[in-house]
Every structure is written in C-alpha cells, then in structure tokens.
Molybdenum cofactor guanylyltransferase
Amino acid sequence: MIPLFPAVILAGGQARRMGGADKALMPLGGARVIDHLLSGLRGQVGAIAINANGDPARWAGLGLPVLPDPVPGFPGPMAGVLAALDWAHAQGADRVVTVAGDTPFLPRDFVARLGAAKATAAVAETVEPDGTVRLHPVCGMWPVSLTVDLRVALAGGERRMRALCDQAGAVPVRFDAAQPPPFFNINTAQDLARAEAVLTVSGQPIIDPPGP
C-alpha cells in the first residue's frame, strides 16, 4: 500500500476582512467551515495538523496538532507552508499537502490528482466561467527538500506564493468546474453567505462537528 502524505490546514492568517475571526471556525451548513474541509480531506491523506497562530486552545476540539508560524510577523501562507514542511520532516515524510483553512469544498480526488502529476511539487488550478485560469497555490503538494530554500526566501522578505511555486517548480493541476465549486475560499461575510447558499442548492449533507 502506498503511504498517505501528511497534510496541514493553513489557518494562520489574520482574516482582516472577517474582523480577525477564525474563518475556519465560522458556522456553515450546520457545522463549521473546517468540518466540511476535514470531511473532504480525511481519507485522502495520513496525519493532519493545523497551522494557526495565537491561543491554540480554540482548536482543541479538533484533536489536531497546532503548528504556529515558524517566523514572526504574520508573513502569510508561505510561513504556513514552512511550518508544514518542518512538521512533515519530523513525521519522516518526503512530501506534504497543504490546503487553505477557508476552503470547505475540497475535491475528493484532490490529493490523488496532485500525486498523479508525477512532480515533487504541484498546485491546484481552475478555470473561471469567463475562461480565466486561476492558480490556487495554497492548495498544493510540496517536497520536504524545499525547507531550507523556503526559510532563506522568507528571511529575505519574499512573501509571494507564486514565487514559491516557481522556486519549487510546482506543476499546475487543473480541476474542472463543479458544484460546489472547488477551492472556493471564504474571505468575507458575503463569501460565507454564498457558501451557505451553495450547500443548500447542491443538497450536500450537513456535517456534524466532531466532539471534544
């Protein structure tokens, strides 16, 4: 049996457009955003951790390791990827999957599709209704061997996920439009309302949040 890669949910941002609230813990469809995300992620990966800053107690009910950014100053998702790489290395893994904590509709074949790219690094890509190609670099697979270069890039002030993709030679993996939309992310209250509407229209079942 092929071993499953570990995965880290990146939820270390400051969520300014949501008033600083944890987007992953927002209510959605009778559960929370992260419950929907975990429902899609479990079974695709091995061990799961969450990258988050501040008091880790607010995540205690998930039963997951909480990994703070390894560099100060909230430098963005690149720091979350570095936390994921450090943790994956400690797990003895050679690659790690990362997903954004505000993406409740993760495709059920997400990790399999990335692994099929036959590249050490791969990231999700979709096409908008108007034909615009959109990269989702936070939702990707990364080699642990990238750790040193990423740490150096962060120390040098690099913050762009696209620069990380270039550095890693990440291959884009295209996912077709679907309902619910893959990699839809929640940044605002309006986005949260749209996600609720998508669940209602799609008839996706309500997910019960895990017990403490």
Q: What stands out?
A: The chain is about 30% helix and 20% strand. Residues 7-202 form a domain with the Spore Coat Polysaccharide Biosynthesis Protein SpsA; Chain A fold (CATH 3.90.550.10). The chain has one domain: 7-202. The two ends are 32 Å apart (CA to CA).
